[in-house]
Design a protein that fits this description.
Elements (H helix, E strand, L loop, with lengths): L4 E8 L3 E6 L2 E7 L10 E6 L7 E7 L5 E6 L2 E7 L3 E6 L7 H13 L3 E6 L11 H8 L4 E4 L8 H8 L3 E5 L6 H9 L5 E4 L3 E4 L4 E6 L2 E5 L13 H4 L4 H7 L16 H7 L5 H12 L2
Parallel strand pairs: 3-5, 8-9, 8-11, 9-10, 11-15
Antiparallel strand pairs: 1-2, 1-4, 1-14, 2-3, 4-5, 6-7, 12-13, 14-15
Helix pairs in contact: 1-8
């Protein structure tokens, strides 16, 4: 029997995966009913007599983080061991502030650090994202302005992503595939749709090792929502609102019309951005 090795899943299919272990890519079958996703660290046992690098996944190791998608209260893991989520924001197609706030809440509840990438600056006037930058810099979110198409400012983004494992998220047409291709040197294919939008042509989730940076590309992030998060967890994605909520007169304050609400008072005083407050209420009540 060959020695068990430890590796990381770099491609995940429906019932098999590709594992990078000791510099070799092993095509792996999965033993039993182990729940696996791209990014997982696993123990594999190479198969005796195999013509190529083939192995059996024996065990999944502990995850530092896990990203879920959910629909109708059923959650499904997408990728694991992610350290950062890059939220792509564009003017065309327009990215809503609700989309940004939703992903910040998802990231923080998954113990993943969110940051924002304002893309397609090559077709915009200078300071086109100044309002959005002000909102999110004020709550400590790191932001970048880039053109993935023209490679503008990608060196700053690459420096930030060094020694991190990142996944990019964004609406169709926001430039996820273009940016991932530019960062990895791999051609990520997407099919053009109407309204300047696009969609992946493959359903395979892939982890790219590029220098000292890891990027995960997963079609599964297209339809993610907050079904798996309870309202009392969503507030953690709104750190400034949570901070003021601890000062409310009553512990079960609904932050809408209850007497003695410190959150509403902070909105009136400009200490909480109105768009952030509105999106917190929308996302919390959607449960």
């Amino acid at each position: 029997m060959l020695k068990v090795q430890t590796g990381q899943i770099v491609e995940f299919y429906s019932n098999s995966c590709l594992v990078l272990a000791n510099g070799n890519n092993f095509k792996c079958k999965i033993q039993g009913r182990i729940n696996l996703v791209v990014g997982d660290f696993v123990e594999i046992e190479p198969l005796v007599g195999a013509d190529y690098f083939e192995a059996l996944v024996k065990k999944r190791l502990d995850r530092s983080s896990i990203l879920y998608k959910s629909k109708e209260n059923v959650k499904k893991p997408i990728a694991s061991n992610i350290s950062h989520i890059g939220i792509l924001v564009t003017k065309s197609p327009k990215t809503s502030l609700e989309f940004i706030d939703k992903w910040i809440a998802i990231s923080i509840n998954a113990s993943i650090e969110p940051f924002i990438i304002f893309n397609k600056i090559d077709v915009l006037k200078e300071n086109a994202f100044s309002k959005e930058q002000s909102i999110y810099k004020n709550i400590g979110i790191k932001t970048f302005e880039i053109s993935a198409k023209l490679l503008t400012n990608l060196n700053c983004l690459e420096k930030f992503l060094a020694k991190k494992t990142t996944i990019f998220v964004g609406n169709s047409g926001s430039g996820k595939s273009t940016l991932t291709s530019a960062m990895t040197g791999k051609e990520i294919l997407s099919k053009d749709l109407s309204n300047n939008q696009g969609v992946h042509t493959t359903s395979v989730s892939t982890l790219y090792n590029t220098g000292d940076m890891q990027l995960i590309d997963s079609p599964g992030v297209r339809d993610i929502n907050l079904d798996h998060l309870k309202p009392n967890k969503i507030i953690f994605g709104f750190s400034e609102i949570y901070r003021f909520s601890t000062k409310c007169e009553f512990p079960n304050c609904n932050h809408i019309n209850d007497r003695g609400c410190a959150v509403i008072e902070a909105v009136k005083n400009g200490e909480i951005e109105e768009s952030r407050y509105n999106n917190f209420i929308i996302l919390s009540q959607r449960k």
